[in-house]
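Hey,
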Amino acid sequence: MHHTDQERDLATPLSRLIGHWASVPGGHELYYTQVDSSAEAGICILNNRGAAPSCPITFEVVRHDAAGEGLVIRESRSFGDLEAHTGISITMSLTTISIPKHGRSMVQDYTFCGVPLVREYRYVDDRTAP
């Protein structure tokens, strides 16, 4: 079941993050789960248009402005069999996320391979997987 904006928890940036987001302009989608309080981590799935969904990306919340619009997460990616045999996973740089209180848009600011990037997204629905 998909929730309407009236049913969605918009109280904090972390609660607004949960769900399905599409990049603006299009090209890829992100699906965020709720953070598991016992593991202090959540899962994000990146879905590039025309390709199979990525391996799940684990994210941990580094900072969270519960009364405001921002949070900072750190993502790490494991590569299944490679990690099982070598113990290798990749920890990404910090991602600063801004989600206004209306919860319909999101901006991510991060560095990839030394290049600063800013990506914009729009909220699609409450699905947490493709």
